[in-house]
Amino acid sequence: ANVHDLISSGGEAKPLPKSEIKNKAGNVIASQHLRPLFDLLGVCRLQYMELGFEVEHYENLYQSVTGQKKSWDEMLAVSERVWHLTRIISIREIEGYGRHMDYPPARFMNEPVPDGPNKGHCISKPEIEQLLDDYYTARGWDKNGIPTPEKLKEVGLS
């Protein structure tokens, strides 16, 4: 499933095995588009995430408040644009910003998880590299995590 299908369905994505690192990017991106969308709407995510509040309600509420009709997918597209804009502002403002800033803390690679479903597991540097490669490709970014000009144009940022 593509990213928009995961979020637009209003359903939940199937969990993948903890040891599987492939095909994780879509779920991450879907989550990253939802968070800013609810922030932009000024509403709590609880109703959607926990209670299953249907997307049609957000479309109707948006129209009631603004007088403009926007579909859920159109609202998600705005949220995606925000995500890319946030990234390019960070790149502009933080010297040397790039891939190295997307690594998890070193302890994730060195300290096994003490308990729970991932007990005894740490993530390896090659796994992190693969996850970032997949994520950047799915995002339309280069290997250093910089959005490509084509991607920025696609989302309405020149």
Overall pLDDT: 84
Number of strand elements: 0
Question: Which descriptor suits the 3D outline?
Answer: globular
* Proportion of helical residues: 40-55%
Span from first to last CA? 28 Å
Rg estimate, integer Å: 18 Å
- Helical stretch tally: 8
Query: What portion of the residues fall into strands of 2 or more residues?
Result: under 5%
- Determine the structural class based on helices, strands and strand pairing: mainly alpha
What series of H and E elements makes up the topology? HHHHHHHH
Low-confidence stretches: 1-17
Biggest β-sheet: count, sense, barrel? Answer: none
Supply database-style keywords.
single chain; 158 residues; mainly alpha; 8 helices; 0% strand; globular; disordered N terminus
Give a verbal description of the structure.
- With 158 residues, the chain is mainly alpha-helical.
- 54% of the residues lie in helices and 0% in strands.
- The chain has 8 helices and no strands.
- The chain has helices at 3-8, 25-41, 46-49, 55-66, 72-93, 107-110, 125-139, 149-154.
- Helix 2 crosses helix 5 (72-93) and helix 2 (25-41) packs across helix 7 (125-139).
- The longest helix has 22 residues, at 72-93.
- It starts with a helix and ends with a helix.
- The model is unreliable at 1-17 (pLDDT under 50).
